[in-house]
């Protein structure tokens, strides 16, 4: 009798752990984060070379899922070495003072087959904002692929100070596009 009383709590604990979100390992080679914007009205897609995504995902119970993404702001590649140095300067990302931009989810809700609505805090250059965006998720060869786009206004985060506040050179609208491939 004593043995069965001890086994029941242990069994319940195992079931609870099995039902929670599972941490996934990001496949960096098959993942990307980019900033899409217009410079002099010409579309530009610049990729961040360094980022880390931590995703705990349960496809059966997406509400139990959570995500954290950290991006190395100095790793933005706009396609030219001089411009890469420029965007790390104080007027843009101020990467010396703010080396990382981050996103931490506060909720992940189902929004239809293969779709989620994600809410959380976005922190860039010391400014934090609540954001919500749609996300698609699909299984691909034993991995989960998460794709989405988050529109922001760069000036709300003080990205482009001084003369760079002029939106005729670089538009205020920026879309953060991402694709994260991950597996257990």
TrEMBL record:
Residues 23-183 form the Lipid/polyisoprenoid-binding YceI-like domain. Keywords: Signal. Residues 1-21 form the signal peptide. The keyword Signal applies. It holds the Pfam family YceI. Transmembrane segments: none annotated. InterPro entries: Lipid/polyisoprenoid-bd_YceI, TTHA0802/YceI-like_sf. It comes from the Bacteria. The keyword Iron does not apply. This is Polyisoprenoid-binding protein. It comes from Massilia eurypsychrophila.
